[in-house]
Design goal:
Chain lengths: ~220, ~300
Amino acid sequence: MKDSWLIIRKEWTGFAKSDRGVFLVYGVLVLAWSVLLSSNIETLLAGAGYLWLIFFSVIVSGNFSNTTFSAERISGSLEILLTSGVSRTAILLGKIAFVIAMSIVLGFICYVLAVGIYLFKGEKIDLILNIIPAGRMMILYSTACFMNGACGAWLAVRVNNPRLLHFVNLFVLVLIVAVHAFLSTFFSLSIWSLFVALAFMGGLFMLLAVRDFKSDRVLQPVVY
Amino acid sequence: MSDSECTVSVKNIYKKFGNREVLQDLSLSLHAGTVFGLVGLNGTGKTTLIRILLGLLEADSGTSTVLGMNPAEQRRGYYRRVGVVLEHNGFFGNLTVRDNLSFFAGARGVSKQEMENYFNLYWSDTAIGNDTKRVKYYSRGQKMQCALCRAFLGWPEVYFLDEPVAALDMEAYNRFCAMIRKAQAEGATIIISSHQLDAIEDLCTSVGILENGSISLLEGFSEKKNGALWYVRTERNENYKKDVERITGGAAELSDGYIQFTVSEPCEEKISALVACLVSRGASVFEVRPESRSFRKSIRQFYTGKV
């Protein structure tokens, strides 16, 4: 636990000391997504239109996975990290926790901004009454972040070409959502079934990531 | 040397990547205070051996023990006792050198105060002493200095240094040599893998050449290093050879147009007496010169099959 915290702190310091351009990009992305979300806020709170949030998670988590896992593999700092005295599992869990936490924070900011923009446009919304639907959406979004974070960690070890990481991550998410949508046409599936599917897949990817992170594969050269 | 005396012990290691056998029946034993130079052509498995000794890779068969531990199984306690420089400098680019060191100090169990003292004592007056710059903006040489700074943090008992002198300037190189000697004096075992033969010669007490998957120890490296090889260019004559041996006290050999001799101590003062003696005997002395880099020649001879 202490070691994972050390990794989270290191990742946070690295992110906080990024170039200003990085923050600008994240700022513009959050703002743009908030505007999109604000025009769908009613359908979102009614339990539909959640794809806006879920697909935001893959953009953010994929990007953080890229910088925390793939970039370190390319620069060689991952290899040194493995010899630092911190266990491999602690390194992996610390990094995944950072990716998930950052994705959730950005998603939450996006959500709050979207509501703010909605209200700013003069629309009416009962914030108290909608706390539960909003919470439900945030839980779904957080689960998607967990799935994407775990999937990104596994892919960062498994896929030797880091350029494919984002694409494969997106593909996996689309596949889960598409299967859920397809099955929904035959059975009455609630939004919680998607939550369960994402959590299950996230857990599966986590186990695969732990297994591969302990193997020689993590040291294989990255190819473009 | 018994196994218990060895800090690094490798026995019959095999490692294969696909169909290619990189290490074949490799064995090596090093005791405390050894600075071992690992040389070999590109792709012969030097980095693979270091990775196995670090527990980053597992050998297909054979055993490796460092400080009495199996690197592949006892990672946490093990890494606190080894210093590492690998192919890449391995620093987190967005952090300053001190931030990076703080992280590694935390991971290794080195206290913050100890880290600060170490940095201030050894690195504050160097090119990486300026703490405000992020590591990603450092030059290659500066990044290597950062990697060395990290490797010596906490003065570990065993060091694995892969190409540690690449891109170092003269000042940084001298500092590196001084730190190696300090670590050696404290009983550390140091493995230096490098293509920089001058550095190997300057620092190492023994040298192994990795070829065809196994290590051949370079015999007489220590003697060659300490002794000076000299050449006297004169007529080929057995009597002249005897004179050389008598005056210099070294072992002489006759070769084409040269008398080659090795002495264990500096012998500049004996050279004038030697030349005077040879001339008095009617020899034509065309050239007398020392061959200081005999190690480089030994390596060249190894590869050309003359040894």
